[in-house]
Amino acid sequence: MDAKTGFFYLFSVVLLFAAFRVITARNPVHAVLYLMLAFSQASAIWLLLKAEFLAIALVLVYLGAVMVLFLFVVMMLDIDVDSMRKGFWKHFPLAALMGAVVALEMAGVLLGGFRLTEDPATAAMAEAAAKGIQYSNAQEVGTLLYTQYVYPIEIAAVILLVAMITAIALTLRQRKDSKFVDASEQVRVKARDRMQLVKVAATRKAEATPAAEPEKAK
User: Does residue 99 fall inside a structural domain?
Assistant: First the structure.
């Protein structure tokens, strides 16, 4: 067994352990930390597969932004863990069934696919070297995303935009502490509705101040 295979098994074992602890940890903060560990191990495995762009994107996006945000949110929220665990065994059969279905699907994919005789990254590097150009993993991913998968990317972008707008609308709707403004009222507004003239009494003249007394002669 070479060093690359050894690192793969090491990262895989740590990844499986961290993923198991994510769903079994009693403390939500510990669960988030284990999830961050799982993402870091997945990034290391992608590095072994010569998918540098995906590995760096996983570290920057999930570990550097999303999971840190989750960690701060979980730490700031006062979560009652005991009340959340009351319905655990009630929903356990459905959760176990869904987990079994996902495991069978993953087993079917792993057993039926990924039987490659040649490393795709190595073949792409050799082809780029034969053409006299420098191989770039990020360039290859960008080319695939914006040529072969351009329509799925656009559909996903529209769905994410709609989800973001919907989340903002649901958050700001029917809240007393939010400054909700009806757009139709803004369109129908008139100048007389915004400005009101008020008569103010004239100001009084300033009273004359008494002259200062001359200093007495010494």
Answer: no
